[in-house]
Amino acid sequence: MKAVRFDNYGDLDVLRVAEVERPEPGAHQVLVQVKAAGINPGEAKIRIGALHEMYPATFPSGEGSDLAGIVVATGEGVEGFKAGDEVFGFTNKRASHAEFVLVEDGELLLKPADVPWTVAGSLFVAGTTAVAAVRAVDVKQGDVVVVSGAAGGVGTIVVQLAVNAGATVIGLASAGSHARLKELGAIPVEYGEGVADRIKAEGTPVAFIDNFGSGYVDLALDLGIAKERINTIIDFAAVAKHGVKAEGNEAAATTEVLAELVALIQKGALEITIAATYPLAEVREAFRELERQHTHGKIVLEP
Question: How far apart are the first and last CA of the chain?
Fold first, then answer.
């Protein structure tokens, strides 16, 4: 089978698509033929070595957590899944950017027929990160919440979850994203010089969810927001300096949360924006687009 690999930390050119042996499922494992697998900023940071202290790579390394596909085979003790089932979920083995992936049976759910492959296959990291961030700042009815990186894969989900909770959401994004943010129920505000005044013109924020970094935690503090209601998924230096929260994917990484997100999608209360799809062979191009940091939604590989 084909799978993405890299043999050392580095830029996009270290990524390659290799021929590797197709695995066989062991006890409580499911072999899935991958139909869609989302890519995420954290994977790029792991690849360049920026997260080595927290998440070191073992070479040659695969990559990828999000996945959706078709069950090919099951190992001993697997119940609830059989060959031919359409499933989605995640793997913690950095392995979903491949034609086939072994998944623990507790990390899979049956995919509803009305949820597209690309949506199901890109839901885990962004969706659970968004849930954790919204929970971390305790979004409630009537709150005014600021979201940086509001048009990205995580940001668009955060916006919708906060709107669903009854909050007024101020979404920071470039002008080209404002129409989409309005569709999702947010008040769009352009980032850059004078952003604090533009935020204040829309309301008095009580919570801030930072999906971008680059000084937004300092902005939140300057706006008078309490540290316990500021969450960043990216600026760990600011967490160490100021003691704000840093709840992300790991705080909500369960199939129960995935089931809740899918139920919202099926009810029409949550939309997952798919910005682009790429074949596995174009994994470098997919990450090049992601790393421009102007993507409106999720980028998905289709092996």
Answer: 10
pLDDT at position 48 is 96
Angle at 211 between CA 34 and CA 90, to 5 degrees: 20
**Residues contacting residue 137 through CB under 8 Å, at least 6 positions apart:** 145, 207, 208, 209, 229, 230, 231, 245
Of residues 171, 66, 165, 80, the one with CA closest to residue 125: 66
Rg from Cα positions in the chain: 19
Q: DSSP string spanning 199-224?
A: HHTT---SEEEESS-TTHHHHHHHTT
List the domain boundaries for the chain: 2-123+273-302, 126-250
- The highest-level CATH class for domain 2-123+273-302 is alpha beta
Alpha-carbon distance of 185 to 281, in angstroms, equals 36
The pair of three-digit structure tokens given for residue 201, joined into one six-digit string = 């013109």
Question: Confidence class of residue 297 from pLDDT cuts 50, 70 and 90?
Answer: confident
Could you tell me the CA-to-CA distances from 135 to 81, 248, 255, 267 in Å, in that order? 31, 10, 17, 21
Contact 108, 88 (CB under 8 A): yes
Domain at 126-250: CATH architecture: 3-Layer(aba) Sandwich (3.40)
The per-residue pLDDT for range 66-88, each reduced to its tens digit, is: 999 999 999 999 999 999 999 99
